[in-house]
Amino acid sequence: MPPQSPQNPYQPQQGPQQPVQPQPQVGPQPMPQPQQPGPVTPQAPQPGQPAVQPNEYAFIMEPAKPPRQKLNLIPAGSSLPIRIAVVGGGIIILIILFTVIKGLVTTPPFDTTAMIGLAQDQQEMIHITSQALQQSKQQQAALSQNTMNFAVTAQASLSSDQNQTLTYLKNNGKKVKSGTLNQKVSATTDSQLSTAASNSTFESTYVQLMETELKNYQTALKTTFVDTKGAKGRQLLNQEYTSSQLLLNQLQNSPGAPAGT
After folding, report:
1. C-beta of residue 225 within 8 angstroms of C-beta of residue 241
2. In which element (H, E) is residue 159 found?
3. What are phi and psi of 118, to 5 degrees?
4. pLDDT 10s per residue in the chain (261 long)?
5. Which residues contact 78 (CB under 8 A, 6 or more apart)?
6. Cα–chain center distance at 137
7. Burial of 42: CB neighbours in 10 Å, binned 0-12, 13-18, 19+
């Protein structure tokens, strides 16, 4: 009896072989037809997930937009003096525009024509008094001491009032030129004074002229006061009326004053 070879414990034992079943024949499968793409319905983001923007990655495909050009009134590379000149010119233009618009919109709190008329009345009386003082200084006509004192006081008082009137007008945007200021200076009055100097009636003529001018001036002050709404303007007019009344009182006490004044 031949010796049996030892069995390998790691080799699986073969059992009885099973009969091999024949495999069914598989024919060629048809190729799947490509599906037509339908409308894509965006899916709502799930809670807790960030929403995906439709054009989140559009910047990759689209070209970058050129940066918007900024308006620069000062040319690039300009020197410091040019920049200062441009800025200064712009500020001046703005100030001029503001002043023009303000002048068109703002209504002065007084009658401009009447206020300028007061300055013209003051100029006429200053002119007459200057003529009287000049004639007396040149000894072409004699003035009494009282009339001389009045003339000196009138020139100083009326000049001060006129300066305040012109300043008030200027502060309210109304500058009066010298030609406008002298419109009431009368050549006829100058002729009267020259004629009076030659026939020894100079003092009485001067006193009568100034009395008439002061009374007309006071009437204009009252009318302008009524038409003035501003407190500063009314205060100025009241002050000038008081000054005119003092001058009138002083004039009426002079020797050349007409009787009964």
Report:
1. yes
2. helix 145-171
3. -65, -45
4. 555 555 555 554 555 555 555 555 555 555 555 555 555 555 555 655 555 555 555 555 666 666 666 656 666 656 777 778 778 888 998 888 877 676 555 667 889 999 999 999 999 999 999 999 998 887 767 789 999 999 999 999 999 999 999 999 999 989 999 999 999 999 999 999 999 988 889 999 999 999 999 999 999 999 999 999 999 999 999 999 999 999 999 998 876 666 555
5. 86
6. 51
7. exposed
